[in-house]
Amino acid sequence: MVLPWHDQEFEQLLSRRGGLPHALLLRGPEGIGKLAFAEALTRALLCENPGPKAVACGQCVSCSWLEQGSHPDFRRLAPETITEGGEGEQGTEKKVSHQIPVEEVRAIADFIFVTSHRGGAKVVLVHPAEALNVNAANALLKNLEEPPPQTYFLLVAHRWHQLLPTIRSRCQHIALPPPDADAARAWIEAQGSKNPDLALTQAGGAPLLALQLDEAYWHTRGVFLRAISDTAFDALSLAEQLRDCAPALVVGWLQKWSFDLASYKAAGRVRYNSDFLSSIAAAAAQLDDIEALRFHRSMISLQRVIAHPLNSRLFLEQLLLSYADLLRGGGLRRAA
Ligand SMILES: [Zn+2]
Q1: Is residue 156 part of a domain?
Q2: Does residue 90 carry a pLDDT above 70?
Q3: How far is the CA of 41 from the centre of ligand 1 (A)?
Q4: Residue 42, exposed/middle/buried by CB under 10 A (0-12, 13-18, 19+)?
């Protein structure tokens, strides 16, 4: 199903069913339901008995093949690690390729030029399109140029600026908006989220990412925040405790934490860690304003560049030592 905040865009697109371009780029922030949109559009394009608004019937042969993942007129190009909702900073790191294999893209040429099994449309779904490396993108480009009639390419991307300009220019862009805060909260609450507000702030307001935050995430975040709430925390042993954590995740936590420290000092409120309000208030009271802000800015810069540091352990140690330094520089009194 398309997510409720995309109903309008979906209806508009289906109303142009006869005149849809053969290549669409569905773009927008990560974790807002772009893939669900592309899948719903795939169902609608392949359905053999669509309803009054061109929505898939859910019952014909095509619909049930798609449901089972065995439709002969459908191809999905995706790296192995990608799951519904997108690839986020959350969760554990997997040592699997994050790229779409070029051989699979090359095989698309054979797929689009043979006759459709059901005599209808053919759909190629690429998710996320930024997982195409240059070779794979060039292989796709050949197919995008002049596909046979009734062939549709649906590209899904949140880092769409990274796509080759030649790919971008051959697609019609559909910008999918994020939900507003109320819609996002209502939706993840309906999906069973126990603490929707806190989960949404952790996920930057993206409901699908918020829903992916599992017990392990909340547990490790709790361990980390409780540790750094203690002003005399031991950076090296904490780094050891977090050895299995993705460094980007820890940087993200420290970035949110330092935002809250600066925000509490300036305005007396926090945005991300409302469950640690008293710890933040205690630390903020003893920190230097400028130093706290400077530390927060350094976390933002770090978050932009960090992907996979060569030595995660060393990276974490340095990161936590720098926070310990901030606490010391702010003149915190240590327990004797
Ligand atoms: Zn159908």
Answers
A1: yes
A2: no
A3: 12
A4: buried
